[in-house]
Amino acid sequence: MRSAGLDALLVSSPSDVRYLTGFTGSNALAIVRRRSLALVTDTRYALQSSIEARGIRRIISRDSLAEAAATARALDGLRLVGFEAQHVTYAQYRQLRRLFPRIEFRSTADIVEDVATVKDRAEVRAIRRAVAITDAVFSELLPLLKPGVTELDIAAEISYRHRRHGAARDSFEPIVVSGDRGSLPHGRATDRRIRKGELVTMDFGCVIDGYCSDLTRTIAIGRPAQEQRRAYEIVLEAQAAAIDAARPGMLGRDLDTVARIHIGRAGYGKYFNHSLGHGIGLRIHERPRISVASRDRLRPGNVITIEPGVYVPGRWGLRIEDDVLITAAGCTVLAASPKHLIII
């Protein structure tokens, strides 16, 4: 904030509000000044905010969050105030201009996220717990995967079993795609029945204390084709190369390149059509980005995914993904689920 010349920052992203204050409600605004922090929310959360945001000034109102801040004179004496551009609508921006005509508002990006990408020990513990639950769910899914069950059957089991193991919720809608639908990297589960001889890709994760896990495994129902076996080994080798290369100081685009070169040399480059990974934390997708265009630099305490894949349109696809903690010496893989090609 100081380097940007800001007198205050309005934080409206739910995950950033939680990071700063501990408050988990769905309607809140954090006002970060040079020497103070305030939380604005509505009357539904009066009790909850008193429990979760202890020691922080709270502004509780029936008005909109901006109107509540104006009534409480929370921005008095300020000249330049930043707001999170990706989380403020144009209508909200106009309201700020109307309520605070003497203040200059400036759009900002990633100010809180830049700090939040480096996890402390408590945050890493929460992510490890989430990863352990997702590992347990994966092992429980294997006996359920057989010809005749639907993608939706497996997706429902994922959500149920996450909660049964103590997770608050899924970290995103589980992806379960089989056969030719495996060529859809983010395909939604459908009522399609899994068939013998197909690959099934499952991408899922859960939330513990607000922190996410993210795991992808591809398994074979019956004996896979030789081409599929070869592609699986190539993706597994690409992931292993990227994990071996990941270290602090490395640019996200350089890490992406490690896996992309390996897959490209094997002849599948045009079928690896997404980035190698992304950061995880209170958000399932956050910085650092691990993509061909990323200039984010890895730092100790980052938790990232490494998830190369190959997707042959209309035929089949596969992906292998792990959550990885960047350390001072390199990195540590957090997941324990097996990565060899499991054939059921």
What does this molecule look like?
The protein has 344 residues and is α+β, with helices and mostly antiparallel strands. The protein has two domains: 8-116, Creatinase/prolidase N-terminal domain (Creatine Amidinohydrolase, Chain A, domain 1); 121-333, Creatine Amidinohydrolase, CATH 3.90.230. 31% of the residues lie in helices and 24% in strands. The protein contains nine helices and 19 strands. It has helices at 14-21, 46-52, 65-71, 90-99, 111-116, 121-141, 151-164, 226-245, 252-265; strands at residues 8-11, 28-33, 37-42, 57-61, 80-84, 104-108, 169-170, 175-178, 198-204, 206-208, 211-212, 215-221, 277-279, 286-290, 303-306, 309-312, 316-319, 322-326, 331-333. The chain has a six-stranded mixed sheet with strand order 4-3-2-1-5-6, sandwiched between helices. Strands 7-10-11 form a three-stranded antiparallel sheet. A three-stranded antiparallel sheet has the order 8-9-12, with helices on one face. The radius of gyration is 22 Å and the shape is elongated.
